[in-house]
Design a protein that fits this description.
Largest sheet: 9 strands, mixed
CATH architecture of one domain: Alpha-Beta Complex
Number of strands: 14
Shape: globular
Order of helices and strands: HEHEHHEHEHEEHEHHHEEHHHHHEEEEE
Structural class: alpha/beta
Strand content: 15-25%
Number of helices: 15
Helix content: 40-55%
Radius of gyration: 23 Å
């Protein structure tokens, strides 16, 4: 039986070493991308921000969209109902001029600056996620002159150069989509919040220089309007729950590369409790199982292998004598796995620090959690994977869904009439 452990442990050590190498490549990629000059590709852009409920610091998150170092763009907020809690915040933003946004605009160019703010009410979704339903409605309200569509989540807080950096790869018309990703920062230290950040970080580092293996993240992604229409993305979204997985699949089928933009990394500053942590991580895995079953299988097997080897290895340290081969093989294996995992975490965190310079203090505090909580992350992934195996039901922003297939979603409420509220053209 011990020879089975030897085999599995050797496999895990090898995979841990590959992961460690991936961490080095991740840092190198960040440095390379950050060394590029700021792009001068500045077509008219439509930023679409679906909102539902009150995220922590929602007003600050949305205000960041109007502090962009970019000449001319519009921001379209879209909600399912004008009675949604976020509408009062959105209306407040629409009705005022942001002094900080005005300062950034005036300092960066003497040319005309225009930011258009709109609020669209999409109505209730019937057979797709509310977010997807909102996006499908919002794209019908973009300006005629818009050349690029950018999609952003309401819990993300982008930097001033986020928009310019995110769309930069699209200057090359051969690029299908550009994407960033999120990094969770807790407002106040909490084990559940830090665990979610570590769990999420492992997915963030899956993106990189390989255009063929990258995926889109709906919280910060951009497509040329011509590409969006060519692949008929609005129609492909029909009936789906996951906006980003659907875009990723469309890009892969059209053989269009996805460019990861480290400079556009967005922070999500919020706390969560254990219920929210488990709900978030399990929801992601259930969505993954439906839209990318091969990734779910890899996560299931990988997390299972890690937990098996780690528990078995610790058991061996107590069961076998200190002068036995089994004892020392187990000890060395666990040491190597730990060393490679800690190294990967440090390289990843160092890469993120290069981008999120304004959050240096918060990221310094994450040093200990990022380099220690990785040991619990595989257990959480395994739990998520098991949950995804036995159920396809999720709760997202208070709405219950059943994922029947990548193109079929059941929603638990009736559809309502779509309508659009008046828009305001400001920040001229």
């Amino acid at each position: 039986m011990i020879f089975v452990f030897y085999f599995f442990a050797a496999v895990l050590v090898f995979l841990s070493w590959k992961s460690f190498r991936g961490g080095i490549d991740y840092l190198i990629f960040f440095k390379k991308e950050l060394g590029k000059p700021l792009s001068d590709f500045t077509p008219f852009v439509s930023i679409i921000a679906p909102c539902r409920g009150l995220d922590e610091d929602l007003e600050e998150n949305l205000n960041a969209l109007f502090r962009q170092n970019f000449p001319r763009y519009e921001v379209i907020f879209v909600v399912d109902s004008e009675t949604d809690e976020s509408v009062s915040v959105i209306n407040k933003i629409i009705q005022r001029k942001d002094p900080e946004a005005q300062r950034i605009l005036s300092e960066n160019s003497a040319s005309l600056r225009l930011c258009v703010k709109k609020l669209v009410v999409a109505g209730k979704a019937e057979n797709e996620s509310q977010k997807v339903h909102n996006l499908r409605e919002a794209v019908l309200h973009v300006a005629d002159e818009s050349e690029v569509f950018v999609f952003v989540d309401s819990d993300a807080r982008p930097s001033a150069d986020w928009l310019r950096n995110l769309i930069a790869p699209l200057a090359d018309e051969k690029i299908g989509a550009a994407t960033a990703y999120r990094w969770f920062i807790s407002k106040n230290f909490g084990f559940a919040s830090e665990m979610r950040s570590v769990w999420n970080a492992s997915i963030a580092s899956a993106l990189g220089a390989n255009l063929k293996s990258n995926f889109c993240w709906g919280g910060s992604m951009a497509l040329r309007r011509a590409t969006f229409e060519k692949i008929e993305m609005r129609e492909r979204w029909r009936g789906t729950l996951s906006d980003d997985f659907a875009v990723t699949r469309a890009m892969n089928e059209a053989a269009l590369p996805i460019y990861f933009v480290p400079q556009a990394l967005a922070v999500s500053i919020e706390n969560c409790n254990w219920r929210e942590c488990l709900e978030f991580t399990t929801r992601q895995m259930k969505i993954t199982r439906v839209y990318a079953p091969h990734l779910w299988k890899l996560s299931f097997i990988g997390a299972g292998l890690f937990n098996l080897v780690w528990i078995w290895g610790i058991f061996n340290l107590f069961f076998y004598r200190a002068d036995s081969f089994a004892f020392w093989f187990s000890l060395v294996s666990l040491f190597l796995i730990s060393a490679f995992s800690i190294g990967k975490s440090r390289f990843r965190l160092n890469a993120v620090k290069l981008v999120l310079e304004n959050y240096e203090s918060a990221l310094e505090k994450q040093f200990w959690t990022q380099t220690t909580l990785w040991i619990f992350s595989p257990a959480l992934f395994f739990y998520n994977s098991v949950c995804a195996l036995i159920s396809r039901k999720i709760v997202w922003r208070g709405i219950h869904y059943t994922l029947l297939s990548p193109a079929e979603t059941l929603v638990n409420y009736e559809n309502t009439t779509n309508r659009t509220l008046p828009s305001s053209d400001i920040l001229d």
